[in-house]
Design a protein that fits this description.
This protein has 96 residues and is α+β, with helices and mostly antiparallel strands. The protein has one domain. It is 18% helix and 22% strand.
């Protein structure tokens, strides 16, 4: 799946404390052992804001990424299709 890293954008935060904690809280999955960028073997350390490469879906999502891919603001990333995309909007996750 192709996602665009939008980390440089401002987004409404939530009560989780960080975007990585937001992903952990609402994905209901364990943090993956490796960054979900398909060719990366680094550990994910940060929650990154991304958008799907789909003009029909303008929602913002959070995925865990390594520091290198987290810093790739504005770049397209090829992400493992098995990674859970968590909406940044807490109302869409069932949170506060």
């Amino acid at each position: 799946m192709v996602l665009k890293n939008i980390n440089g954008m401002v987004a409404n935060g939530c009560q989780c404390g960080s975007w990585l904690e937001h992903w952990k809280n609402f994905s209901r999955r364990a943090l993956p052992a490796y960054c979900p960028e398909v060719y990366c073997t680094q550990r994910p350390e940060l929650g990154a804001l991304v958008q799907k490469d789909d003009p029909a879906d303008t929602n913002w999502y959070v995925v865990p990424l390594c520091r290198k891919h987290f810093a790739a603001t504005g770049k397209e990333l090829v992400i493992d299709a098995g990674i859970k995309l968590v909406p940044t909007n807490c109302r869409q996750t069932g949170g506060q």
